[in-house]
Amino acid sequence: MKDSFLPLDIKRLGDMTGNLYKSLVVVGKRANQHTLQLKDELASKLAEFAPSYDNLEEVMENKEQIEISRFYERKPKPTQVALEEYYAGDVYMRDPNEIEE
What is the Cα–Cα distance from 81 to 15, expressed in whole angstroms? Predict the structure, then answer.
């Protein structure tokens, strides 16, 4: 992955669908899919560390759990991944308002 702060080529983004706003919706929806996938993945990994008992007085620090959380924090942002997929042509989109031939 590249740096997290890169200028966007807005013209190129808009040219891919013919409409900048349509392209932004496609990228946004794909980024949301990535976010949900990462959230589920992280929740399932952290569920392994959930205590079987409910005791509010005893809070334990688990270094392995912290490392897993940091790993996910260091991953590229879902928007950046979605943009790279979109530029590479890996994202399929279909507009239900367009008439199919």
Answer: 19
